[in-house]
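Structure, all two chains, one model.
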Amino acid sequence: MQSLDKAAPELTPELHTDTPDPLHDSPGRQLQLARKNAEITIDQVASELHLSSSTITALEADHYDGLPSEVFVSGYLRAYARLLGIDPVPLLDNYRRLQPSSTSSHLALSSMKRPEPSNKSISGPVVAAVVVIALGAAAWFSWTSLGGSEFLAKLSSPSAAEEDATQPNVNTAPQPVLPRRPLDVQPVVGASEAEGALGGAESAQAPEAAAAAEDSGAPSELAPEDSDETPDASPAATPETNEGTNEGALPSDQEDVAIGLLASRAATADPEASPAGDADSEAPVADASNSDAAEITMLFTGPCWVDVRDSTGEFKLFGEMNKGDRKVLGGRAPYSIILGNAAAVALTVDGEPFDVEAVARGNVARFDLDPATL
Amino acid sequence: MVFRRVRGMFSNDLSIDLGTANTLIYVRGKGIVLNEPSVVAIRQDHDGGRKTVAAVGEDAKAMLGRTPQNITAIRPMKDGVIADFTVTEKMLQYFIHKVHETRLIRPSPRVLVCVPCGSTQVERRAIKESASGAGARDVFLIEEPMAAAIGAGLPVAEARGSLVLDVGGGTSEVGVISLNGIVYSQSTRIGGDTFDESIINYVRRNYGTFIGEATAERIKHAIGSAFPGTEVREVEVKGRNLAEGMPRSFTLNSNEILEAMQEPLSGIVSAVKIALEQTPPELGADVAERGIVVTGGGALVRDIDRLLSEETGLPVVIADDPLTCVARGGGMALDMLDSRGIDFFVGE
């Protein structure tokens, strides 16, 4: 401003007021002064720029509200400036200063809405490492707590896990004990075997069993009896169950591993969850129902992951079967069956083939089977 | 697929203006981060040997027309669409990698690619596949006039007609847009490359001298204009004299270049006129009131707005930073992707 003041004495006062000042005058004012200096009318400008006179008047008055969006206004200003021989760059800068542009504000808003994480190059690998470690830990935990193949199966069939969690049957409680080694299907535990094989462990757990039975409100007369007889608790508690299961499971005593697993073992191995009273009361029922139960056989023509539970939860068949394996289901119907590779299973009910493919969704069959309703 | 999603967490969404002449990449929240020529230099060690990428972008463009036998500088895009699929994929891969600082994890961004409105289904599919092959997690396509209009700041969502002309390297696109949709669009295979070719032809015809594409482009940038001006500018050019076979230098002026570019320029003007004829009257009135917006590298040709304005009798406005309008518009559309769905995008 000072420099202009210094220059002022050289100019006539009239010229000084009419000379556009690109630094301080508004764009409209600059254009108006330049137009007047060039002695051009608004109508002439309008016809040159193919705009209406009202648009030119609004531009000169800096009234941008009635004009179209910013891209047009800046274009008009540029064309007008060029027509009058003014440098459009400072004029447009001036305009943008006066009129915070909608375009740039839109850009600013959009970039603010989704701020990119800063120093991404540093945080990226760190976050990646944390994610990988967390995934690894989760996988390891699931593997160890569920058992390898079951975990794999649960990954492919999440509903199986839900079923496990939601099944209200008390007898499902022993589950955690059983599937630790899902691949070595347990042989039927006869009375003597149970005594021999499980004796040590069971006796060690006996006091716990007694205490648990008391805690869980089991009949008080049963608890001491169980704890006294702990070494052979399984045969004592459920001889019929074993027999019943054996009747169901052992007709198929070929090279296949007989399946079948047992309340008695559950009662001793995990006394907390299964009070002895339950096993006692249910055993005869199981026996009765199984004596005339239909024989359900599974013949595997290829590798297949299997999860079969009977209605009581006492009988289970877990694990991956191989080609040529043949299994006969024990326990009580109805069965809840999950077959990982339905195409590789030939299922027969009393010798009658059952179409697994019909109930399979994709390669996985998840269904309930009750021979009585067939 | 899962890994792509994980990698996607470490990638920025990109809007790519895969142009015949230049490829621009807009990163959400960062703006234009890459503006390089769409040129790839391929090296082949011996006849039938393995081909490797020698250079991409600026470096490769410097090699155009100056390569030894074992290197070929290729422009994989022609007329706005893919001419060489494999090379385009390599180029995109290079550019996508370049805009991601993270080197540890291979980027897998969501990518929006701008396609000419006149491109066929096959050409669009090729662009989509190419971007997927370059590592994109999801690929969206948007028509160039729409992206250009958004990038120029036109009120595309309003119930008012806006006419946008995008003069690119290989194609020029005219689009009339209203309510987030394209009412009319037309693509002509005239663009910056056509201007260069006309200059080459003009010089050969009138001076008996052969010049290369790079020289023609330099002439266009220096003295090219679309409307006769008061000022005549000159440039000194060197080329091979066809009669003597020797390199010779001579001087060209802006009026000669204007004459040389007359044909492609009138092609663009007639495309705009046809668009105005085809536009429904209400929208045509909106366009007449506010004017035509020009974007793309061709908008930088001196006085192209005056030419269009004189020819159509309508106000013509050059968008701010016209070269990046399409990429910026694509970026803004990408911004709106999550909030407003896929209004703007086109299928294959």
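Residues 17 and 220 of chain A are 112 Å apart (CA to CA).
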